[in-house]
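User: Predict the complex with flavin-adenine dinucleotide.
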Amino acid sequence: MMLGYLLARAGVDVTVLEKHGDFLRDFRGDTIHPSTLELMHELGLDAEFLQLPHQELRSVNLSLNARMVPVADFSRLPVHSRFIAFMPQWDFLSFLSDKARQYPNFHLLMQTEMTDLIRQNGRVVGVRATSPAGELTIDADWVVGTDGRHSRVRKQAGLPVQDFQVPIDVLWMRIPKDPAQTDQALGYIDRGQFMVLIDRHDYFQCGYLIPKGQFDAIKQRGLAALQDTIVRMAPFVGEHIRQLDSWDQISLLTVKIDRLRQWYQPGLLCIGDAAHAMSPAGGVGINMAIQDAVAAAHYLAEPLLNGTVSEAVCQRIQRRRLLPVRLIQSAQIFVHRRIINGQNASVPAGFVWALNHIPALRRFIGHMIGMGPRPEHIDRLH
Ligand SMILES: Cc1cc2nc3c(=O)[nH]c(=O)nc-3n(C[C@H](O)[C@H](O)[C@H](O)COP(=O)(O)OP(=O)(O)OC[C@H]3O[C@@H](n4cnc5c(N)ncnc54)[C@H](O)[C@@H]3O)c2cc1C
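Assistant: Here is the predicted structure with flavin-adenine dinucleotide placed in the model:
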């Protein structure tokens, strides 16, 4: 959506396909990072955007065996909004799509699922899709795969993938809460278990980590056992959690970290999770996808306008984004090996001491989460 908006703003005729009829998915996370808020500022949209209901997270705390440990501090970031805005992603996407629709050269096709790449002489020249009106084909000078971590574009393109095994999956559920209850930690580690609680005003979006492939075994132990574990980690969810009375209210989200060796081929580019699936560790995947979109718009807009887009342009995009993506994915792999590996979540004592006593470390982590390495800027677009 961000790439579609930026290209339309630059004058390019652009069509965005979304297979669902709305943006009401809750599997993507809700984080609008300081770097994204800064982009909104550079686009002149931040004041209006921040009118939408959201919560502001200025630092991140972890509850470690019931003791609060400060992890990340955003208070000194070199941006206008020094916080992560927690906002349902459907609000963010609706906002962006409304702005993009102001350009007559922007087209958003909802309930339209890309099914096939169309090729001519070894080059991608468009896509086939299904929609409620039937099958359609869309010709394109260039196709950009932005279809997430189960990307069909990437599969159809046959681009080679490097898979970094991740030992965890996530159980994703809503736990009702009292709206007045605030100021909880974001992450919880207790007796080797790890969980995230995202405050969505009248409920917590809960992400509970399990070892990969263990969902059936957890089900066999029964819902009450899972509820007890969660209450042990966060006693304040109390009796609310008993309202979860069926496994149907709990989704299994598969976590992966992988990366295409080459993000492009003639007529095609992949960005975001389609190019490099991110784990939820650090809650940075959305930020990376948006940064990719800004870089892609920067390099693609002019060549698309004057008909000179080529693989060399895409190579520049991959080169520009590879270092930040590599650094963040390496940090996620490290976190999954050493801290949250599905079997026994724990933080080394020396690291806990450093988090408690070295403010610069918390600011560094805040920078990596809030901005990411080498953040992109709108003013680089013409
Ligand atoms: C459990 C979990 C929690 C996470 N929490 C966070 C978090 O809190 N913060 C964070 O920054 N990151 C989080 N992440 C990572 C984050 O979700 C991704 O990195 C990010 O969403 C990638 O954005 P994207 O636009 O590339 O793909 P997506 O957000 O996955 O978007 C892809 C879009 O393409 C559409 N689509 C798919 N296939 C087709 C098709 N064939 N035709 C048409 N449309 C199609 C989908 O419906 C979807 O709208 C989490 C990941 C997981 C697994």
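Residues 168-254 form one domain.
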